[in-house]
Amino acid sequence: MTRKLFYLCVLPVFLFFTGCKDDDEVAQNYEVTVTVKAPSGVDIGDVTDLEVVAANTISGEEETVAATNGIASFTLKAGTYDFRATGETEEYALNGVKSGVDVFSNQSVEIDLAIASGGGLVFKEIYFTGIMSYYFLDFFVEIYNNSNETQYLDGIILAPVEQGVNGNVTQASGTNLWDQSTELGDRYPLACVTAYFPGTGKQYPLEPGKGVVIASRAIDHTQRTLVNDTQLPSPVDLSHADWEIYVEGASGTGDTDNPDVPNLLSAYMNSTRPDFIFNSRNGQAIIMVRLPEGQSPPNFAADAANIVTKPTIGYANQFLAIPRAYVIDAVDIVFANPTNRFKLLKNEDDMGMTWVDGSNDGSLVNAENSGKSLRRKVIAITDGRVVYKDTNNSSVDFNAGGQVPTPGVQPTTVDK
């Protein structure tokens, strides 16, 4: 009698929890219809390869759907999503984004496409992660002329964007302090050294399909002396870099000046990090800037109106601020772990983000000390000239996860 009574008591409880689980699973999925609208002067029917990506902002999971006649349909779990649309015509690359959409019911989303801008010069590769044990002096970036016309490097500015986050670059560490600024406006604050190419306008041409490697220290880092088993050799020899960013007294340890490699110049140096290296070896946004004709980087930096103060508690930091209108390429590099990603750039400059995963198996772990770089995807090789993907969306333009650095080497195959 006691055993039968026990079964009768347990059975309703089991059925109750089973029923709740089924209801929750059904309630977690919602239908979302995304309508993509073409910019003025462009017919949506003329847009090819039109795709929409739904990216869960918490888990990092993404789903891609081809849009037919500008319509893409999703069945998504409950959550908050960023929706990114990309496409192209014979003349333009197009993209658009709708961020922070809460999906807790069936709904419709609209995305306005815009023509992706760009000045022909792009970041082909960025290496910042360093290797064990805590060696990060082998930092480099490579700039590439992705157009079919000669571009000029004269006066081009390179700079990481100041993070402005309490304690670290993660979302969990605090809000972006720059959101509290009343003087920043539509500008980016620049971190560490604001480096620029010398020249008066057309002294340093870069032919179509050619690139230049800019090294933080133009030496052969593979020859670094290893003093114990925890240290690893660097993957890059930068002794033949095209340019070097020499900063005397950098990071308090001194810099190395290769006399055979020309130096970029410094327009402004932030006292908190007098060197050209990312604040975080897990990544940081970086921009390429061309000032208006007739304005030089030193004169721009000397104008007090271009210096902004970071809102802080207890002390003040001043930074050079660059109008977004002057940006010709930008890459938002973030942590691999979705819960630690902090986007710094406006969607109009980079509607996505990219990262190094820090391991060889794709695990979303810290990138630091991984010895891996980020390289832009190849979409075509025409008459021997490599054409890199450039849609102002680093989520699709770059090979996320990272790779072995290849400074000065152009790929021979197209990326899938």
How is this structure best summarized?
By secondary structure, this protein is mostly beta strands.
Helices and strands, with pairings:
Blueprint: H1 2-27, E1 29-37, E2 48-56, E3 62-66, E4 71-77, E5 79-88, E6 93-103, E7 107-112, E8 114-115, E9 121-127, E10 140-145, E11 151-152, E12 157-160, E13 187-189, E14 193-196, E15 205-206, E16 211-215, E17 243-244, E18 265-269, E19 286-289, H2 297-302, E20 307-310, E21 317-323, E22 327-331, E23 373-375, E24 378-382, E25 385-388, H3 394-397
Task: Tell me what the structure shows.
With 416 residues, the chain is mostly beta strands. It is 9% helix and 31% strand. It is built from three helices and 25 strands. The chain has helices at 2-27, 297-302, 394-397, and strands at 29-37, 48-56, 62-66, 71-77, 79-88, 93-103, 107-112, 114-115, 121-127, 140-145, 151-152, 157-160, 187-189, 193-196, 205-206, 211-215, 243-244, 265-269, 286-289, 307-310, 317-323, 327-331, 373-375, 378-382, 385-388. A five-stranded antiparallel β-sheet has the order 3-2-5-6-8, with no helix packed on it. The N and C termini lie far apart (68 Å).
Keywords:
single chain, 416 residues, mainly beta, 5-stranded antiparallel beta sheet, 5-stranded mixed beta sheet, 25 strands, 9% helix, globular, disordered N terminus
